Amino acid sequence: MVDIEARTELDGDVYRTLLESTKAIPWKIDWATMAFAYIGPQIESLLGWTPESWASVQDWIDRMHPEDRAWVVDFCVAQSKDGVDHEADYRALSKSGEYVWIRDVVHVVRNADGEVEALVGFMFDISERKRTEEKLLNMQRELERLSFKDGLTGVGNRRCFDKVLKNEWNCAQRSRQPLSLVMLDIDYFKQYNDHYGHIQGDNCLKRVGALLDSMATRPRDFLARYGGEEFVLVLPETDAQSARSMAERCRELIEQTQMPHEKSSAAPVLTVSLGVGAMIPDMADEPLSLIGAVDRALYQAKLQGRNRIAMADEP
Question: Is the residue at 140 inside a domain?
Answer without folding.
Answer: no
